[in-house]
């Protein structure tokens, strides 16, 4: 039963007890055995021991014995449409991978995008994601309402969602990577982006849908689209997102085309600031990191995708030490075929330990913070989500850690970060159950799988016949 479903009209409550709790608050408060009281859409109280006596309108009590409660995971970078092109170009670097797949991606339509969004969202939600985002930037002519399809899939799933409405206007004829028929015009991209913001963005506390302005990348977007996109976002009061400093090839591209490195180029176009976050940021020097820290520009760290495409190891420990906001991202499921964010907690920790800081790079609690509060910071919602605190939105996950995969690991946070992917017994978004016992509540998983398979095959046939 949902927390808001009390027929008497009074605020309904869900009480979770007897679980370990990692709040990820400013003090990293943890309880070996504690409780969370959810009232309506928010967390009413949290603490050690049993929940307070005499609570009224309790519609559900959850015995959390053998579980760890954490904030819901926050995904800060993704490309849902790639769900139906997984497992292709598996031995390519970024630029070659893009060239190989753009001709196929340029033939997507509304039905394909809806199916891909459902698959992407379903895998993330089953793995503890309560806030998702999608950077969608491929809008072929005549393909239908792609933004509406993506937002509709998130609403149906019950997860909190940010659509980064992307765009491309630099095609092959202009020195970019996308085929000529896969891009929009400058004017068309700006107009469509503004329409999407006005139609779908909700700026209120507890909003389930928000929109960001998100030209794709320096090598697929004109300088004018970058500049006017930033101006549009600030006029409308929404955030800005793009790819940045992902590969050495991108850095070379920026120097050759603009006479600047990526960070200096972003600064010249108005793309540094507290309202900006960028995906990857693998190849950052000390000056770049200092500029991000000084301006409050955020980073979506995507360790699995960076490894899959041989992009390199981002300097996450140095970014955190400098004060750069850093969250985690799945990235597109054609460069992270698992499509799950909870595995990124482990991969962020392990991959960063291959870098210069070795075993001191990240610990388990830093990895959990990246996937929760760090992601909330990057999306501009840290006052609402990302930690378990009274007054914040009731987005939380109950991880089962007493099974064969985790029961011999004494520390619960170490169990979910270092150990195998922990099963999700319960996931709440806005106080509403979204996942129970590892299954999605609001959609038919088997139907999603069948539809995604069918749409992937249809896309492959269309691309092969083109």
Question: What is the gist of this entry?
Answer:
The protein has helices at 94-105, 110-126, 146-157, 186-200, 223-236, 248-258, 262-268, 286-295, 303-308, 316-322, 342-352, 364-378, 412-418, 445-465; strands at 13-22, 30-39, 42-48, 58-63, 67-71, 73-74, 129-136, 160-167, 209-215, 240-244, 276-280, 298-301, 326-328, 396-400, 424-429, 432-436, 439-440. The protein has 466 residues and is an alpha/beta fold.
Structure in words:
This protein has 466 residues and is an alpha/beta fold. The chain contains 14 helices and 17 strands. The chain has helices at 94-105, 110-126, 146-157, 186-200, 223-236, 248-258, 262-268, 286-295, 303-308, 316-322, 342-352, 364-378, 412-418, 445-465, and strands at residues 13-22, 30-39, 42-48, 58-63, 67-71, 73-74, 129-136, 160-167, 209-215, 240-244, 276-280, 298-301, 326-328, 396-400, 424-429, 432-436, 439-440. The strands form three sheets. Strands 1, 2, 3, 4, 5, 14, 15, 16 and 17 form a nine-stranded mixed beta sheet that branches. Helix 4 (186-200) links the parallel strand 8 and strand 9. Helix 4 (186-200) runs parallel beside helix 5 (223-236). The longest helix has 21 residues, at 445-465. It is globular, with a radius of gyration of 21 Å.
């Amino acid at each position: 039963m949902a927390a808001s479903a009390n027929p008497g009209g009074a605020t309904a409550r869900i009480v979770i007890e007897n679980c370990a709790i990692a709040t990820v608050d400013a003090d990293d408060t943890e309880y070996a055995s504690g409780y969370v009281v959810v009232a309506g859409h928010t967390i009413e109280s949290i603490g050690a021991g049993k929940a307070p006596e005499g609570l009224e309108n309790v519609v559900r009590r959850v015995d959390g014995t053998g579980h760890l409660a954490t904030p819901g995971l926050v995904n800060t970078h993704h490309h849902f449409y790639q769900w139906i092109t997984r497992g292709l170009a598996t031995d390519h670097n970024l630029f070659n991978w893009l060239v190989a797949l753009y001709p196929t991606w340029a033939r997507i339509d509304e039905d394909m995008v809806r199916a891909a969004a459902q698959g992407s969202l379903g895998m993330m939600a089953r793995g503890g994601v309560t806030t998702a985002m999608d950077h969608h930037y491929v809008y072929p002519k005549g393909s239908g309402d792609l933004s509406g399809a993506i937002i509709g899939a998130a609403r149906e799933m019950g997860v909190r969602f940010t659509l980064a409405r992307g765009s491309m206007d630099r095609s092959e004829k202009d020195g970019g990577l996308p085929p000529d028929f896969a891009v929009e015009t400058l004017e068309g991209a700006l107009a469509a982006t503004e329409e999407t913001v006005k139609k779908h963005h909700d700026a209120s506390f507890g909003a389930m849908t928000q929109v960001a302005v998100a030209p794709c990348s320096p090598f697929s977007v004109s300088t004018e689209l970058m500049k006017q996109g930033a101006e549009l976002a600030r006029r409308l009061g929404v955030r800005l997102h793009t790819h940045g400093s992902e590969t050495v090839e991108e850095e070379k591209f920026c120097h050759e085309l603009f006479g600047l490195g990526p960070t200096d180029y972003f600064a010249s176009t108005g793309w540094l600031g507290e309202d900006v976050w960028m995906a990857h940021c693998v190849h950052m020097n000390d000056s770049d990191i200092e500029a991000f820290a000084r301006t409050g520009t955020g980073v979506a760290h995507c360790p699995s995708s960076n490894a899959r495409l041989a992009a390199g190891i981002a300097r996450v420990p140095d970014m955190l030490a400098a004060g750069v906001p850093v969250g985690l991202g799945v990235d597109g499921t054609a460069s992270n075929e698992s499509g799950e964010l909870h595995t990124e907690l482990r991969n962020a920790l392990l991959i960063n330990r291959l870098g210069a800081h070795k075993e001191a790079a990240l610990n388990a609690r830093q990895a959990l913070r990246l996937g929760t509060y760090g992601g909330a910071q990057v999306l501009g919602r840290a006052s609402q989500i990302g930690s378990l605190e009274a007054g914040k939105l009731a987005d939380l996950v109950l991880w089962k850690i007493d099974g064969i995969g985790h029961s011999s690991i004494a520390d619960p946070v170490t169990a979910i970060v270092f150990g195998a992917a922990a099963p999700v017994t319960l996931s709440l978004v806005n106080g509403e159950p979204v996942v129970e016992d590892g299954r999605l509540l609001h959609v038919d998983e088997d139907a999603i799988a069948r539809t995604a398979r069918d749409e992937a095959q249809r896309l492959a046939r269309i691309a092969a016949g083109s």
